[in-house]
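User: Need the bound-state model for nicotinamide-adenine-dinucleotide:
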Amino acid sequence: MPGDEVLKNYIDGEWRDSSTGGRIEVDDPSTGETIAVVAEASGDDAELAVKAAQRVFRERVLIDMHPYDRGRMLFRIAEALAARGPELAGMLCDDTGKALNVAEAEVETTIKYLRYYGGLADKHEGRSIPRGANLVDYTIRSPFGVSGQIVPWNFPLELTARSLACAIATGNSVVVKSPELAPLSGIAMAKACEEAGVPAGAVNVIAGYGETAGQALIDHPDLRHLVFTGSMTTGQKVLRAAAERIVPCIMELGGKSAAIVHADADLDAVLESVTIGTFMNAGQNCNGLTRLLVDRSIAGELTERLKAHVEGLSVGSGRENCDITPLISNKQRSSVERACHTALEQGAQLISGGSALAYRSGYFMAATVFAEVTSDSDLFHKETFGPVLAVTTFETAKEAVELSNGTDQGLAAGVFTRDLDKALWTADRLWAGHVYVNGWFVSGVETPFGGINKSGYGREKGVEALDGYVQTRNVGIKVTPPR
Ligand code: NAD
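Assistant: Bound-state model below.
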């Protein structure tokens, strides 16, 4: 149990308690024990945060700053975080349950986002448009104003950095709504912003529940831009609110991503990808490898190897750096268990796992593999957000692509083959924002990322992301020639 300290929200450059006195108890998913108490931001706190961000925008504090200086500010935030890298990685283990190596990678990615967009801040230019004699025409890429950023709990530090860095690089001011299940990253980011000398009100970070603080943020009349990263169901709610006031949105939603495994694939590479793609972070990855589409001729061999591989994965807390770490909450684990029961009822064959693990008092779930998963079943279509892999077989390359594209989502997809022609042919036809060939998660902060279909729209990461944080304005000038 922590001391008496209540961690506060960061609004207008000040650390403020909740206006209602509400509290969020933060638990360690590995043990269920309370590790911190955070002031619960109310709707009124969200209002204060938006007002502060709006003032900064109206006074042109960031817009009038040289873009190079906005970039340097992002570098300073990165340095402040880097200075306490190991502490932050430990915090992520305790707050989210993830393994230490995954937490360390998250801290590193967070820093990379800030440096990458810091470097791009003074390179996002408009253009001049030739229009013949006596007309000068150019575009200005202007920020929207207050950017509301709603963050999920699975990668709370790097996802906060991903959107915040783009917004600040382009001159927007920001209100981050941290996830109630993992609010400590938002507080760490706010501290780094304070240390980096970010002007008061330019970045505000509140921790509150979706239905109160989140809803107040998206309903606020001064909100001009919204980045939502989370589930499809909440995303739909958020979009309805945004539609009322025509607020432009970047929607980063869930997925049900499949990897196609051809008969000539390197099966060691497939198993390695399953370890990270399916089971890293207890499978709570939006672009995780959740379906394996396997050539029927090697399905028996691969399933046997999968069973042995999965049963050899280590189980333990984040700090113990194990392969299988706990889910974020008991509720999330129950939801994954229900999905496993439904899979059995719908005829899938359980290869391994399938139920909760009684390990300490944490929210552990066994690494789970189902075979014979049919294309009309829930497990084939619905995001489970847990350590569960669904195996389905195919006969032809064309059928494999149809199965991969056969859900209404499209965040990531992959193909494993040694045949270059087959890989390129398949990559072209996989209807997903991100295609991985012969390895899962082969992407970086510099590669554009986002969904197709119900996985969302807009792009984060890469140079492309900056386009989602500006609106192009045009200036036309009539020139009168001297008499
Ligand atoms: P969630 O939709 O339950 O919550 C996401 C955020 O929305 C939280 O901060 C929550 O407080 C907030 N929220 C809830 N109700 C709200 C409301 N009415 N108004 C405003 N905000 C509200 O999602 P989650 O369970 O935190 O995260 C898991 C989901 O996120 C998965 O579906 C996963 O695929 C997705 N995800 C997507 C990406 C991506 O980049 N595409 C990245 C990570 C996670």
